[in-house]
Amino acid sequence: MSTWVWGPAEFIGLPSRRLVGKGVLTGLLGAGGIVGAGALGMWTGPTALGSGEAGLVIACVLGVRLAAIRAGRAFVGLALTLGICLALTAPQATAGLVLAHRGRIQEARVTSVEVQSVPQQSRGGHRYFCSVENRDGTPLRARIWRGCRTSTEPGDALAVLYDPLGRVPPRGAEGVHTGLWPLGGVVSLAGALVVVCAVAVIRSFRLTLSS
Description:
The chain is built from six helices and four strands; from the N terminus they run αααααββββα. By secondary structure, it is of the alpha+beta class. It has two domains: 2-100 and 179-203, no CATH class; 104-162. Strand 3 and strand 4 form a beta hairpin. Helix 2 runs antiparallel to helix 4 (53-68), helix 2 packs antiparallel against helix 6 and helix 5 runs antiparallel to helix 6 (184-203). The chain crosses the membrane at residues 24-43, 49-68, 75-100, 180-202. Keywords: Membrane, Transmembrane, Transmembrane helix.
């Protein structure tokens, strides 16, 4: 049971450099593919990439790969979980960088305000979402919560940060982080995924083929 959960790890002493390199390479390829797919989607526009769908596929392929070499099921499950989280996080983090790099600020007019319950929020557990439209009356495709407050009413002006190429949904200009800060979570997840994959591959080593 222990072998099934954690892997056989049938090496004596420390694992070989080749085995460690193989594990690290597996993790780098998996994490790099997931992050690269999400980043490419936000920068260039393919829907399947920007939505995280391609990243989810890569995460599943990585999980299948680890299972195929009979890595410990605990590591396979953890790698799959981290891969899915990374696939869903990378596009949003990249979207923040895209807006910080080429975003433009414009004033939009609020058309409606909705209140939604958000349990993790400390401000009474609610968040306000504003539907907005351009000056020409064209509605924006995303609801804005940054800068949308209790006092906001239909007809008010709201500063919106948008992508001139239209590949990234607009956001409220208030409180948008610039620089590399949005990538912090992505780097942490990617690093954890590389470590888990490396350990999974290393512990999958067998001295003899199972009959």
